[in-house]
Sequence to fold (225 residues):
Amino acid sequence: MFEHKTRPEWVAVEEFLSDVVVRPDGALQRAVQSAADAGLPPIEVTPNAGKLLKLLVKSSGARRVLEIGTLAGFSTIWMAQALPDDGWLVTCEYLAKHADVARANVDAAGLGHKVEIRVGAALDTLAALEAEGADAFDFVFIDADKENDAHYLDWAVRLGRPGTTIVMDNAVWEGSVLDPSMDEVNAPGILNALKLMGEDSRLDATVIQTVGSKGWDGFALAVVL
Ligand code: SAH
Ligand code: DHB
Ligand code: MG
Fold:
């Protein structure tokens, strides 16, 4: 795993903001604990980022959400909490063990009826969704293997519609987007996705840099034109 360096004061402020402003509910807190208990890596979005996803889903009026990279379902729960009762979220996860933990967490949060977890390589699942003629997604969150970020971004456009909101986690990756030799596995994929966001006439995009418990990173936001 690529090392993300944090600072104590970033973590302290993140905890303060989580306690005072974000206030994750018990289901979200238990989801993080269950992931740790099951030995999953602690790489879920921070609570302040999860809350941002929830508020973006809510403010965009999204009814159909696509997530790429489930882990234990922490970001899944944040987004599903913003969906109407007849909304739908499909989330792609490669590892069956992660999907099992996520299924239990999503069900325990009372959101099971809105969430479908598809196990397998996301590129296969995305192709299957297209082949099934799935209705357009209103909101897409990309947070899986960074090598494929540019492919996931392209799929998000293809499975979306004008107005679809796309968020991509890990858009700065400790600044390695400026020097991909820092992480030859992940940085080139992230950089390709950022270039696509800037160049692709189907997209309008920005990136906000972030610091916190997960180090120095960024959240990319794109809208399909
Ligand atoms: N979005 C989650 C964190 C996801 S971590 C949250 O914030 O709570 C990234 C996840 O992507 C891991 O569970 C990993 O197993 C999964 N993943 C990695 N490669 C994948 C692939 N090719 N297809 C689908 N999932 C993949
Ligand atoms: C890793 C993956 C993530 O999605 C993330 O937000 C942080 C770290 C990782 O694979 O190391
Ligand atoms: Mg991430």
